Amino acid sequence: MEDRIENIKKQLHSQSYKLTPQREATVQVLLEHEQDHLSAEDVYLLVKDKAPEIGLATVYRTLELLTELKVVDKINFGDGVSRYDLRKEGAEHFHHHLVCVECGSVTEIEEDLLGDVEKVVESRFEFDVKDHRLTFHGICKNCQNKSE
Amino acid sequence: MEDRIENIKKQLHSQSYKLTPQREATVQVLLEHEQDHLSAEDVYLLVKDKAPEIGLATVYRTLELLTELKVVDKINFGDGVSRYDLRKEGAEHFHHHLVCVECGSVTEIEEDLLGDVEKVVESRFEFDVKDHRLTFHGICKNCQNKSE
DNA sequence: TTAAGTGCAAAGAATTTGCAAGTTG
DNA sequence: CAACTTGCAAATTCTTTGCACTTAA
Which keywords does UniProt give here (chains A, B) (predicted)? Predict the structure, then answer.
């Protein structure tokens, strides 16, 4: 955990960005909520505990910066809000998501299920794949049991 | 083409929605731009040729209705705008997209590449898959040649 | 006839921007 | 110090809503 913060700090410095308390607090919040898919507003409210003076605009600017540095991925599940999802340490690809249409829960899938599919895309469509977004919409285990 | 309009009309009627000239014009625009990924604003401008009095709000309402009827799918490629993509006739699943990060072009992939992946998700995660979204980000054939 | 649909303008929500003041390296 | 950052409020952008009027079935 400490290491990850250190790494991110180094990344900022290496691109001659400054490490402000606001940025540090934002990164901490993201690390502490690794499983969640927080909106900018969510992050804002959580960061306020650590840095009460922070403004929402700064949170937006920081999240944009972290997206650019590939520390987080910006995703959109179809409601009107962008969400920010921490990249796994050393993960080559963005992980996948299962969104339950009943309860709205979001589950992450770590393992790469797209290896073969990507090869097909690369060869058949001559498309040089850099990243992907895969989301399944359906009914989660919990809600399946509920509706029986 | 005629058939598809007829089909969509029937779908509207069967749910006791009315077939207004505005709705008909909107559907026509979508059919005429099947390969595109139009935003509500895009659709609005195009529909105005056929039905000049139409308001943007009506376009939004129509697109929402067509989404509900599964005539179109609402997608979001990460810019702040929702786009509307006509479902292929009889397609069981939503098709996939290749988004070029250089030129912004969007290519559609018809064939279902996710059959096996979906089985894994269903069995391993006990998730009842209803639909999916798969988008690859990368460099299209065209842009690969350009940068050489 | 009448429930459903429309256009317009106003309201809302999410995000971005301008700028003076404050900080980091 | 100088360039980068911040907070605030105002501005934008996309989308939704209220309401009086119109229209398809």
Answer: DNA-binding, Repressor, Transcription, Transcription regulation, Zinc
